[in-house]
Amino acid sequence: MSTIPDSATRVAPVATPSPWHRGEIALQKAAGAYERMDATGRRVVRDYMPDQHRQFFAQLPFVVAGAVDERGDPWATLIAGPPGFMQTSDATTLAIDRARDPLDPADVGMHDGASIGLLGIELHTRRRNRLNGVIRRDSTSARFDVAVEQSFGNCPQ
């Protein structure tokens, strides 16, 4: 005879947050695609970089970065260097060995604690990987780290 645990011993499932922000969710609902996109996002958007993304970023000579200035205006910029200027010590951190550029309008939004979006593009294969995260930098180093919040591939269009 099996016993059914009483409600005091049941464990409620933990709801994981959607990988999409509220604006994306609103658009998905308006288009009638919320359930499909929610399932897809939970499957392909990660809070870490898989090994193939870690290797991908490390071999690139540039990355496109998006930042937001103090007025809330978005800026895009290129961060470039010899392959290897981006490295990963672990699956949740991307280190970028590049000093700040005060003449770049995007630099205002690239301070410690700021959110940043990165798009790595391998031009000859059209492969693209995205990484969204938070900048971690100290005043004594030219390099900065990005703590990974979202990592995912983009289709090569």
> Radius of gyration, Cα only, in angstroms?
19 Å
Number of helices: 3
The CATH homologous superfamily name of the domain at 51-154 equals Electron Transport, Fmn-binding Protein, Chain A
CATH architecture of the domain at 51-154: Roll
Major sheet attributes: 7 strands, antiparallel
Uncertain segments: 1-5
Shape: globular
Strand tally, please? 7
Multimeric status of the protein = single chain
Order of helices and strands: HHHEEEEEEE
CATH fold title of the domain at 51-154? Pnp Oxidase, Chain A
* Sheet/helix structural class: alpha+beta
Strand content: 25-35%
Percent range of helical residues? 10-25%
Give the N-to-C terminal Cα separation. Answer: 58 Å
Mean pLDDT: 87
Please give a quick description of this structure.
This protein has 157 residues and is of the alpha+beta class. Helices cover 18% and strands 33% of the residues.
Describe this structure in words.
With about 160 residues, the chain is α+β, with helices and mostly antiparallel strands. It has a domain at about 50-155: Pnp Oxidase, Chain A. The chain is built from three helices and seven strands. It has a seven-stranded antiparallel beta sheet, with helices on one face.
